[in-house]
Amino acid sequence: MQTYAADLRPIQQDATAAIATAEYYEQKSATIPNDISRREGDLLRAEAVEAPQPQIDEIEADLRRMRQAQSNAASQVQDARQQLYRARERLRAIADVAISHIETAIEGDSDSAFDNWNQFWDGAAGWIGEWAANVLKGILEVLGELLAILVAIVVIIVVIIIVIAVLSAIAAIIGWVALGILAALLVGAMLLTFLIRDGLGTPIRRSPAPGEELKPKKKYPSDADDATTTDQYTSQDYGDLFEEVGRQDVAGGDQRTVIRVVAITDAAGNVIGYRVQLPSTQNWSPMNGDGALNDLSADAMLALFPGLETQYKKAVWDALESSGALDSDAPIMLTGWSLGGMMAGDLATDPRLSGRVQSVVTAGSAIDKHAGEIDPSVRVTQVNNRWDPVHTLEFVGYGPNDVPGPNWQTYHPVDIRIHDANMYGELADDLVPEVRPGDEIFFADDLKNTHEEVYEMVYSRG
Known about the structure:
Layout: H1 2-48, H2 53-107, H3 112-174, H4 176-200, E1 204-207, E2 217-219, H5 238-252, E3 257-265, E4 271-278, H6 296-304, H7 311-322, E5 332-337, H8 339-348, E6 357-363, E7 379-383, E8 408-411, H9 421-431, E9 451-460
Parallel strand pairs: 4-5, 5-6, 6-7, 7-8
Antiparallel strand pairs: 1-9, 2-9, 3-4, 3-9
Helix pairs in contact: 1-2, 3-4, 4-6, 5-9, 6-8
């Protein structure tokens, strides 16, 4: 054992040095791409304004230096990994020698049974701990799912008890038959009001007003270096999308509906893809007559009368037309959470967008009813919290043919926040940190010289 300890010391020193080197250069590798992206943005802007050649030369020199540093860092990390691998092989070799010597000594030792027993448990401790951790993780995941189901059941039971108690009190006064008739009349009157308001009404565009020029806001990924607000960042993944649509919700509130059509544009000014960002329910009043379009009425109509041309849907079409998306043949991504995701799923089945929609990205939205209608080539990505009941409210339109195809990817995390845009943004970051192949064109990238041109339109009920 003394020999083993002596041989082990230099191996430990080499391994420690290799780990320190790897950590240093991995940290360095993590920052260099952002620096390169920022300077490439500087170069793009300098060339666009025809900056003096010395300034352009300086930027290009910086880029060459950064790329060389990136290559060197990657090489250093690889060398450190090789050094760790060699240390591990040396460790195994001296361990084999030590074990051989120990076994030889144990054969003549009267306490061999006891020593072998201890040796077994010393070696077993590692794999037993790993086994226990894996088993515990599986148990916790199952318990989380069962707890989510239990909470949903309890909530439903409590609601049913409250409703029964209230109805019983009313029925005791007017009778059950009269109560049923009254409830049917009230629900029917409300749905009729919703149908008339959405079917016959026309949304009002508040900004820009009709006749005013619609100017897009240009956003570059490198703008993040100097950003002072979260809305100055470009979306880089699905988590960013959900958080950005959440900010649209806040901007519109219960009085206005903020719809964004984001044109991903290359250096030559060509649009290579459109991203349509749709807000969730913000107005819960059944009497909403001049507030936001994304309201209780739109929820009810999408759930009960899928395909109906609601004022919300009319506004989306106006936004697509005003932004120039309908005059282009560039592919489209539809995205939103909650009601916004439901609208995205509904639009994906509209024949007027046939062949244009390539991606649908939703969170906490009931869109499975469209599985049989959405083109199988469309990439559908859903993040649905198991504790969130909203994505299960398919209601009318869901049938046996609505079976998600191979291009549908649905994630079912568990989170106690139930239904929240920022929650879904965080969950998407954890579950889908990289966008799916094919969806890259819907995100700006400095390295590909693409940027966002954001068309923002604001509407209210008419």
